[in-house]
Amino acid sequence: MSRTLPAKALYTPEQRIRRDNTRWTLVQGLLAPVQFLVFAISVVLVLRYLYTGAVSQPAAGCSVTTLAVLFTRWRLACSKQGGRHAA
Question: What is the pTM (predicted TM-score) of this model?
Answer without folding.
Answer: 0.54
